[in-house]
Amino acid sequence: MNDLLPLTPGQHLLILNALNLTTAFMGGAALLFVLLRSQVASAYRLALSLMAAAVGMAGYHYWQILGGWRAAYVLQGGAYVPTGQPFNDASRYADWLGTVPLILAALMLVLDIGRRKSASLVARLAVAAVLMIALGYVGEVQREMTLRAVWGAASCVPFAYILFVLWSELRGVLSFETPRVRGLFSRLRVLLVASWSLHPLVYALPLLGLTGAPAFVLGQVGHSVADICAKVFYGLMIYAVAREKTLSEELLLGLDTPRELVRS
Amino acid sequence: MNDLLPLTPGQHLLILNALNLTTAFMGGAALLFVLLRSQVASAYRLALSLMAAAVGMAGYHYWQILGGWRAAYVLQGGAYVPTGQPFNDASRYADWLGTVPLILAALMLVLDIGRRKSASLVARLAVAAVLMIALGYVGEVQREMTLRAVWGAASCVPFAYILFVLWSELRGVLSFETPRVRGLFSRLRVLLVASWSLHPLVYALPLLGLTGAPAFVLGQVGHSVADICAKVFYGLMIYAVAREKTLSEELLLGLDTPRELVRS
User: Fold this and answer.
1) SS3 sequence, A145-177?
2) pLDDT at residue B28 tops 80
3) How far is B25 from B232, CA to CA, in rounded Å?
4) Predicted ipTM?
């Protein structure tokens, strides 16, 4: 919960537009991932379905955040001043609690992991994700900066575990994939870490004493950009992996002469 | 119907976010179950369709509960105080009355039960579920604790009957299934009992004298978590059973070389 500061019309508008754009991106991506399902082999459709559900849920949450943003300010004498309605920034955490396990599961489902191992990885990643987000939520609603720092640091432990799994435990699995799939996966992993890392950076802004209006605007826009990268562009890369594997398999089975492979 | 207590901003926010997350989860799951229909054999599509309808209905109800929650409180002097608008918590029972028979029917439809036996089981389970929920509803709107206890205890009788059917009557049916399906079904049953049991626990909180704000918050979050488990995760396990059976049947018929089976 933020103690909201007065904003200039430009600052208020920038956040409004960032929230609007993110809502639209999530809704558009939900439609896109539904449509792309038919382009991948049956084995990868669950992954794209999970991505569609995840961005759909995120779209709903951004729409709620947008409504909260409109209610939190009123234009008075040329500046936007808080109405007293709290801006529920922490509802982002509710969103992540639902969507992050889904997008991690989607990643496991496009790789050639045996079912037993895949279920174990999904379960461990989901538990770590829920812990990471729940600890971050507790820190987010603290007003005391020391407590914010402690809960934030605690939240980094499961984050580190997720990175460990994605780098270390998946090394063996990746050796069964084609070089092209390995390349896509490496880029996907980098996108995930880079976009996820924006959230702790925004979280740390008040700890660094950056509490003015510009820092707040930066934080709000940062969360939105990070969410678009971690869900929409991430989902497109999940599709790229699934499509690549679908085409290779069709070539192997002689089902088709995949034009996209021939051309490349 | 609750006599609402004043809440801290953090408590109010936690319930708001839990309701928001549950609404998003139900909507996301509705989309997901619609998409997953094409991944299972024709015989199991009715089960997934029922699950999609059930979570869609639950999403609507949670959205209504969310609206009620917003109307029930106002921020005054740093605390959330009741506006006098009653919070219609009992609308959860209206939701369950519609959705619980659907999710029990979905479970019967993914098992290899003869049609006559399946219809009889669905009918008996649906009647027991309606009784369980109706009796619980009557208890929920009582203000007198003894009456609450009596109606609550009465509601446990049809609950016990449902458990009896799932454990005892289905034993014979399960012997026709593969070990893997039996394993999935066992876990599904445990998920059902564990998540359903959270509701009577929340119901019993006032009987145990736990009536303060923290108990109320725990209860609201508990209902939401239980509903997500009993509908969204339950539905995913219904899908897992249906998908498993679809792949085995395709293998048997030589329709395909299901990669998911080969890989595991």
Assistant:
1) HHHHHHHHHHHHHHHHHHHHHHHHHCHHHHCCC
2) yes
3) 7
4) 0.88
Note the pTM of the prediction, 2 decimals.
0.91
pLDDT digit string (tens) for B206-258?
888 888 999 999 999 999 999 999 999 999 999 999 999 999 888 888 765 55
- In whole angstroms, give the CA distance from residue A173 to residue A29: 28
Query: Are A45 and B39 inside 8 Å of each other by CB?
Result: yes
For residue B10, the chain A residues in CB contact (below 8 A) are 1, 141
In this complex, the residue of A43, A93, A141 whose CB is nearest that of residue B10 is A141
Amino acid at A139: G
- pLDDT tens digits for range A185-217: 999 999 999 999 999 999 999 889 888 999 999
Task: Choose from A55, A110, A141, A252 for mutation: most chain B CBs within 10 A.
Answer: A141
Residues of A at the B interface, defined by Cβ within 8 angstroms: 1, 30, 34, 37, 41-43, 45-46, 49-50, 52-54, 56-57, 60-61, 64, 84-86, 88, 90-91, 93-95, 97-98, 102, 112-116, 141, 249
CA–centroid distance for A247 within its chain: 27
Does residue B264 have a pLDDT over 50?
Answer: no
Cβ atoms of residues B195 and B226 within 8 Å: yes
Q: Please, is B218 exposed, middle or buried when counting C-beta atoms within 10 Å of its C-beta (0-12, 13-18, 19+)?
A: middle
Length in residues, chain A: 264
Residue B59 buriedness (CB in 10 A; 0-12 / 13-18 / 19+): buried
CB nearest A115 (choices: B16, B17, B260): B260
With CB atoms and an 8 Å threshold, state whether B260 touches A43: yes
Alpha-carbon torsion A65, A70, A72, A73, what sign? positive
Is the pLDDT at A13 greater than 70, yes or no?
A: yes
Q: What is the pLDDT of residues B110-135, one digit of tens each?
A: 987 878 888 899 999 999 999 999 99
CA distances from B11 to A68, A90, A182 (A): 18, 12, 46
Cα–Cα distance measured from residue A171 to residue A189, given in angstroms and rounded to the nearest whole number: 12
Give strand pairing partners of B75. Answer: B80
> Which residues share a beta bridge with A74?
A81
Identity of the residue in A1, A46, A86 whose CB atom sits nearest the CB atom of B36: A46
Is the Cβ–Cβ distance between A177 and A119 less than 8 Å? no
Report d(CA B39, CA B251) in Å as an integer: 15
Q: Which domains does chain B have, with CATH numbers?
A: 14-62+88-263 (1.20.1070.10)
Please give the single-letter amino acid code of residue A179.
P
pLDDT at position A64 is 94
Closest CA to A220 of A83, A101, A66: A66
Tell me whether strands B73-76 and B79-82 are parallel, antiparallel or unpaired. Answer: antiparallel
Q: Specify whether the CB–CB gap between B64 and A100 falls below 8 A.
A: no
Rounded Cα–Cα distance for residues A13 and A17 (Å): 6
Q: Determine how many CB atoms are found less than 10 A away from the CB of residue A58.
A: 31
